[in-house]
């Protein structure tokens, strides 16, 4: 096991890097980029269309619509679903701010619910309790390594005649009853932010749906409301707009990178699973580690995918500082629950409204997990965590 160098220092383990991945994929990426430059179409071009088709095949979606970020994907999907001003969307209080800000940007009103303390996903009972006559959408967010309880959430949606929009930004590869995340309700989204399981070299995202009308509407909204070149083909772009859209087209450089990385996505997911298993083995029983990731067994056949390795610990912020001083990067998911953030203060929530979400924000920390990591890197991180929790100075 790696325990540091002879002079007492520790090798750096960044929270994320894909340097080795890009070195291995560079010949393929360079070939695709050369095609982009020769074609002279840098946005919304042939590489984007090819990526949309490849992503649809990989996920099993009938349609994949490329856009320029996961956040835009949520905004456009909500608008395509017909969200109207003042419509309420139920969102978990423990998630990235974009889950709720997308509702505001689409004209709706976020209504928060508490989370399951084990899966960190929205609690179906709390979601059901949040339904009002103005509720239009339930937005489950699939976080970290597993999906929300979609059977229970779909039952809630069916009972109240609500639309389900999945924030599956982190969930590529996750499946429920064999159906890919994002395809259980009206549609879902993916983020290709560089740290994601399938990451670009900048911002990019996609909408997944099996509904042709929803796909067509979302694809038009991403291009100023103009129809044409919307579902993976090139019939020509209409100059007439029928709805106010935005400029959220995916660029072809990002699509080129994503196409290359998609060829090894299964391998990368398997590598993440092996690293997560190594973490679990090495951290089991560590004092001060309150909870390791737990994949909840359910009646549905579920396919977990480790996006990050999230643990709950005592003295979370102190541990993050300690690891940083020894060259190990971490991330806090999430430092404050959404219902207590200033941008949502007007909604009137108070501390104590969602205790599971609040507790998670105080104790969770994500340790490095990405395909370029080695088992020695995992050993280094775990050794440092143990040293900190047992109060032995390095």
TrEMBL record:
Family to which this protein belongs: Belongs to the DegT/DnrJ/EryC1 family.
UniProt cross-references to Pfam families, sorted A to Z: DegT_DnrJ_EryC1 (PF01041)
InterPro entries in alphabetical order: DegT/StrS_aminotransferase, PyrdxlP-dep_Trfase, PyrdxlP-dep_Trfase_major, PyrdxlP-dep_Trfase_small
Lineage: Bacteria, Bacillati, Actinomycetota, Actinomycetes, Kitasatosporales
Gene3D superfamilies hit by this protein: Aspartate Aminotransferase, domain 1, Type I PLP-dependent aspartate aminotransferase-like (Major domain)
Active-site annotation: 196 (proton acceptor)
PANTHER family: 3-OXO-GLUCOSE-6-PHOSPHATE:GLUTAMATE AMINOTRANSFERASE, TRANSAMINASE
Protein name according to UniProt: Aminotransferase DegT
Top-rank taxon, per record: Bacteria
Organism: Streptomyces qaidamensis
Modified residues (N6-(pyridoxal phosphate)lysine): 196
């Amino acid at each position: 096991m790696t325990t540091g160098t002879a002079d007492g220092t520790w090798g750096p383990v960044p929270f994320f890097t894909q340097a080795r991945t890009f070195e291995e994929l560079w010949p393929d990426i360079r070939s695709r980029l050369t095609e982009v430059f020769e074609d002279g179409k840098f946005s919304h071009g042939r590489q984007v269309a090819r990526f949309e088709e490849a992503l649809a095949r990989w996920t099993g979606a009938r349609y994949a619509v490329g856009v320029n970020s996961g956040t835009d994907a949520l905004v456009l999907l909500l608008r395509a679903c017909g969200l109207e001003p003042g419509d309420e969307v139920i969102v978990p209080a423990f998630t990235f701010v974009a889950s709720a800000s997308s509702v505001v940007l689409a004209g709706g009103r976020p209504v928060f619910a508490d989370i399951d303390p084990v899966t960190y996903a929205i609690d179906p009972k709390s979601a059901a309790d949040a339904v009002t006559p103005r509720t239009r959408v339930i937005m489950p967010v699939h976080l970290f390594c597993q999906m929300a309880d979609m059977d229970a959430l779909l039952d809630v949606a069916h009972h109240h005649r609500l639309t389900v929009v999945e924030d599956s930004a982190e969930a590529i590869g996750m499946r429920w009853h064999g159906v890919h995340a994002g395809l259980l309700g009206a549609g879902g989204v993916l983020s290709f932010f560089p740290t994601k399981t399938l990451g670009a070299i900048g911002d990019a995202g996609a909408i997944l749906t099996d509904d042709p009308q929803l796909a067509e509407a979302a694809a038009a909204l991403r291009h100023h409301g103009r129809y044409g070149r919307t579902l993976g083909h090139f019939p020509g772009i209409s100059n007439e707009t029928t709805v106010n859209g935005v400029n959220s087209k995916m660029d072809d450089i990002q699509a080129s990178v994503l196409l290359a990385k998609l060829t090894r996505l299964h391998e990368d997911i398997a590598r993440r699973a092996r690293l997560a298993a190594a973490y679990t083995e090495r951290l089991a029983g560590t004092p001060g580690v309150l909870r390791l990731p737990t994949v909840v067994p359910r009646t549905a056949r579920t396919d977990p995918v480790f996006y990050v390795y999230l643990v709950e610990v005592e003295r979370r912020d102190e541990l993050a500082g300690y690891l940083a001083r020894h060259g190990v990067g971490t991330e806090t998911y999430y430092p404050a629950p959404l219902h207590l953030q200033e941008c949502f203060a007007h909604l009137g929530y108070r501390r104590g409204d969602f205790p599971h979400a609040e507790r998670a924000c105080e104790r969770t920390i994500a340790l490095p997990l990405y395909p370029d990591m080695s088992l020695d890197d995992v050993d280094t991180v775990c050794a440092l965590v143990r040293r900190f929790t047992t109060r032995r100075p390095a």
